[in-house]
């Protein structure tokens, strides 16, 4: 595709027609802060944090929404730009109840980080702020509109990333808020609880109910793994504190899910730490089970298989594997059945 050139902070950079100033800047390591920008979604230009100066333009422009043009001269790091960003952060801070001490997003909040970076003090614009009761009528997601900055990332995540179309902007002016159809609670709406809105929220307006109070961001470790549910193999991060999962988020920039998860992958991790979970092999003797070691259990299974193979032949045995394990594990399983047992009687629950 044809490439053109523009200048950002004195550097001549190439762009592909259709790219925004922000995309060209980020691709070339130029930092421009954002709040409402959501990758792969239509820019909303709602937060005005990504403002930059473009030579010849009458006002500062939102770099996330303005396409790059040949010959453009862009400045991202001027006094005018910083003054405007600082003011916009201050306005956002003044628009709600942003008490970081008690907020679940403390340490992982885009607004908090920018307020610190720009040395913003709240209080200059105290006026009419809407307060809303916290919505926690459903078991998975807590909505606190007092912390919402109306960036619209949750709407874009729901409508354009997951294409569920369960939420949108509602009301007008100071009463504006994110609503479901008819402004009903999540559990009474079309929401399918994929939690993509929670992952997209840059502040503490949308949080996972089970994760609340479990760990501050800086106390957790992130481990990348494969979702254990269906055969798609979505990539995700386990957020753990002292070996216990406190939250799951999707891994960005990697297939097959590219930052998406469904309700099971994101919220269905209780079984990992369930006290009912079987973690020790059991062997049935005289009608009741006793705990055994893995070596003992595997030896017993192998001996029984050999008995059956000797008396009935390998085709008397069949193997059924599961979509809950990885492709690699399924490959090894069929190899075990074909090579060690000697039969092609092997199948999989997700086979079409
Ligand atoms: Fe550009 Fe919000 S990131 S306006």
Task: Write up what this structure looks like.
The protein has 352 residues and is α+β, with helices and mostly antiparallel strands. Among the domains are: 2-77, Ubiquitin-like (UB roll) (Roll); 225-273, N-terminal domain of TfIIb; 278-312, no CATH class; 313-352, no CATH class. The chain is built from 8 helices and 16 strands. Strands 2-1-5-3-4 form a 5-stranded mixed sheet, with helices on both faces. Strands 10-11-12 form a 3-stranded antiparallel sheet. A hairpin with a 6-residue loop joins β3 and β4. The radius of gyration is 27 Å and the shape is elongated. The two termini are 39 Å apart. The model has no long low-confidence stretch (mean pLDDT 93). FE2/S2 (inorganic) cluster binds next to loops.
Q: Can you tag this structure with a few keywords?
A:
N-terminal domain of TfIIb; binds FE2/S2 (inorganic) cluster; five-stranded mixed β-sheet; 352 residues; 8 helices; three-stranded antiparallel β-sheet; alpha+beta
């Amino acid at each position: 595709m044809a490439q053109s050139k523009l200048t950002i902070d004195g550097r001549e950079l190439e762009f592909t027609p259709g790219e925004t100033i922000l995309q060209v800047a980020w691709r070339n390591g130029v930092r421009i802060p954002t709040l409402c920008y959501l990758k792969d979604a239509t820019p909303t230009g709602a937060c005005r944090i990504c403002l930059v100066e473009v030579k010849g333009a009458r006002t500062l422009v939102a770099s996330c929404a303005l396409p790059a043009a040949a010959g453009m001269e862009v400045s991202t790091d001027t006094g005018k730009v910083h003054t405007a960003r600082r003011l916009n952060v201050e306005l956002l801070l003044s628009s709600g109840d942003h008490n970081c001490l008690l907020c679940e997003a403390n340490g992982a909040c885009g607004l908090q980080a920018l307020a610190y970076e720009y040395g913003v003090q709240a209080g200059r614009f105290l006026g009419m702020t809407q307060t809303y009761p916290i919505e926690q009528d459903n078991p998975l997601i807590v909505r606190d509109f007092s912390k919402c900055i109306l960036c619209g990332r949750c709407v874009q995540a729901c409508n354009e990333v997951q294409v569920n179309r369960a939420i949108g902007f509602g009301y007008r002016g100071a009463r504006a808020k994110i609503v479901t159809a008819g402004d009903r609670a999540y559990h009474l709406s079309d929401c399918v609880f994929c939690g993509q809105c929670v992952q997209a929220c840059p502040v503490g307006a949308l949080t996972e109910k089970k994760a609340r109070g479990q760990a501050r961001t800086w106390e957790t470790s992130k481990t990348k793994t494969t979702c254990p549910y269906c055969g798609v193999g979505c990539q995700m991060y386990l957020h753990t504190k002292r070996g216990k999962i406190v939250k799951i988020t999707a891994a960005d920039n990697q297939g097959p899910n590219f930052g998406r998860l469904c309700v099971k992958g994101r919220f269905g991790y209780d079984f990992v730490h369930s006290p009912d979970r079987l973690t020790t092999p059991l062997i049935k003797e005289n009608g009741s089970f006793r705990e055994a070691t893995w070596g003992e259990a595997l030896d017993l299974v192998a001996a029984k298989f050999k008995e059956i193979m000797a008396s009935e032949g390998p085709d008397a045995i069949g193997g059924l594997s599961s979509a809950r394990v990885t492709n690699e594990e399924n490959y090894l399983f069929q190899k075990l059945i074909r090579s060690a047992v000697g039969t092609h009687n092997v199948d999989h629950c997700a086979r079409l």
